[in-house]
Write a structure and sequence with these properties.
about 325 residues, alpha+beta, Phosphorylase Kinase, domain 1, Aminoglycoside 3'-phosphotransferase, Chain: A, domain 2, 10 helices, about 40% helix, about 15% strand, 5-methylthioribose kinase
Length: about 325
């Protein structure tokens, strides 16, 4: 396998069988901070494209192994969405798939920004964007896809970092390096056996097969604001499961971004499919917790008191 990185030469990239006749590469640069994969923006004499290559590890945490075939899941997911009139509006086009080198060539959506700005104080999710996100999930969650790959390897990776690792008393991750006092605060929940038993039961539901295609990581880092409207990217965690998982993750990040409760209520008014509020709440609670006391941190603007309040809310959501 050709192991590309941000400093790979234009000559090395040009030699890959990805390019049109007479296409010459002019420049390459990193296309933002991807947690999982190498992502490059490549400018040629004909166009600008995004090159994405998966590795056998998590890009942000190279010590964590990850299934290299996740790029195949992303390819399958996006190709399926191109067959839906609504979903293709919110998705980049796949230009070429090179499975031998675990590479996708993807439409360049321009200098869009993701929605992690929502974690900054006083940031608000616009109603137009809320509508777009609801249209996306409404369309996605009605697809009937009995042959979608089970993506079990990525589910196991996600399972570890949602339901298990954050709740180990000793996991080698010093939360005080994120915020002084967070390690001690986390022990309240890591030693709560009632809570951990409930999370263990929920984790078995997550690992079970379902009948609904999920994006699998539906949070602000997977949404892009572009000149062509909102786009949803990075579906490598996509799988057939319970729609409450996508909904719960979405609700959790509205909490982490300190959005008004009315925002999620408005979303539920727009969402068209039946769901269990109890199950949604449970997935919401565990996602809040894993983002505050797990390794997959997001750039929240919360002091320790606010984090405790949110962790207590998460506990209640899981247990009631």
């Amino acid at each position: 396998m050709i192991d590309l990185n941000e400093h790979s030469s234009l000559e090395m990239l040009q030699a890959l069988p990805l390019w049109k006749e007479n296409e010459q590469l002019l420049s390459r640069e990193s296309a933002g901070e991807s947690n999982m994969n190498l992502v490059l923006r490549i400018n040629t004499n004909l166009r600008s494209v995004i090159l994405k290559q998966s590795k056998a590890y998590v890009r942000k945490f190279p010590q964590i192994p990850a299934p290299i075939e996740r790029i195949e899941i992303e390819h399958t997911y996006f190709q399926l969405l191109q067959g839906d009139e609504i979903l293709k509006q919110y998705s980049p086009r796949i230009l070429l798939y090179y499975p031998e080198e675990h590479i996708l060539l993807i439409e360049d959506l321009g200098n869009g920004i993701d929605f992690t700005f929502l974690y900054k104080p006083a940031s608000q999710l616009a109603y137009d964007d809320l509508e777009s996100l609801s249209k996306y999930l409404n369309a996605l969650h009605q697809l009937k896809l009995p042959n979608f790959p089970d993506n079990s390897a990525m589910k196991k990776l996600n399972h570890e970092h949602i339901f298990h690792f954050p709740f180990l008393e000793e996991n080698g991750f010093d939360l005080d390096s994120i915020q002084p006092g967070l390690q001690e605060l986390s022990l309240t929940y890591k030693t709560d056996h009632l809570l951990k038993n409930a999370i263990s039961k929920l984790s078995k539901r997550y690992l079970a097969d379902g009948d609904c295609l999920l994006q699998g990581d539906f949070y602000p880092g997977s949404w892009l604001k572009t000149t062509d409207g909102l786009k949803v990217i990075d579906p490598e965690f996509g799988f057939m499961g319970e729609r409450e998982f996508d909904l719960g993750v979405f609700a959790a990040h509205l909490d982490l971004a300190q959005q008004e409760e009315s925002v999620f209520k408005d979303f539920l008014q727009l969402y068209q499919h039946p769901f269990s509020m109890e199950l949604l709440n449970a997935y919401q609670g565990v996602e809040i917790m894993r983002r505050l006391i797990g390794i997959a941190q997001v750039p929240v603007s919360l002091d320790l008191t606010q984090k405790k309040s949110l962790l207590d809310k998460a506990r209640m959501l899981i247990l009631t």
